[in-house]
Amino acid sequence: MIAGGAWSNDVVIIESQSSTTMHLKNKVALITGASRGIGRAMARRFADEGADLIICARHREALLEVARDIESRGGRVIARAADVGDRQDVHRLVAMALETFHRIDVLVNNASILGPRVELVAYPYEEWERVLRINLTGTFLITQAVAPHMMERKCGSIINVSSGVGVEGRPRWGAYSVSKFGVEALTQIWSQELRPYHVRVNVVNPGRVRTEMRRAAYPDEDPNTLPRPEEILGVFVYLASDESRAITGQRFQAQEFKWPKTE
Length: 263
Description:
Elements: E1 11-14, E2 28-32, H1 37-48, E3 52-57, H2 60-72, E4 76-81, H3 87-101, E5 106-109, H4 125-153, E6 156-161, H5 174-194, E7 199-205, H6 212-217, H7 234-240, E8 251-253
Parallel strand pairs: 2-3, 2-5, 3-4, 5-6, 6-7, 7-8
Antiparallel strand pairs: 1-4
């Protein structure tokens, strides 16, 4: 039985008395960057689909709010404030997940920051380093920490979140674009290296979505013209589920995804 309620060393563990039985029943999913935007919506959706969750983000209070919301919806969740670009934070997070749930079936590398929208010639070094550390090195670190466990069990799904600027460099996207190009490369390499262990690795481009990051990138854009994060989650549920167990090394457009028909 998981104890629940208060923060201890930046951790909150909450358990409810019931869970929803759907696509992710009996799955344990770790979602990074879950305090807002797509990560927050995904955590709620995964809980509704029956998954037990480990969620992390740098902002503790916002993460706690998400955890309590999941508990109220009938989910079970561990929440920990963590920086995915910090190796010690990552190892503590993964160790806690395995100690509590004894396995991790799904890893979603969602955590990222935008950085300044300026030309590269004027890009501040400190911001360059910070964006790459969180967006790219963070994806590497947490995947490297989780992968051996999945390899030992010979199953698992790793879902990386990319961007349109992860395959097409555009002016004033700087370190964010470079970091997402790196995430695309990591996906291709991990998918080939982990294939013999039946661990699948795929990447998703969410597209234009109504989030705080999108608003920061395009302040003059009308957010009401964009889909909400809750509307683009089908592909993430599919890739986390057993229905995608034969899919690896693929790139998905979230807003073009349609759930494959089964025979």
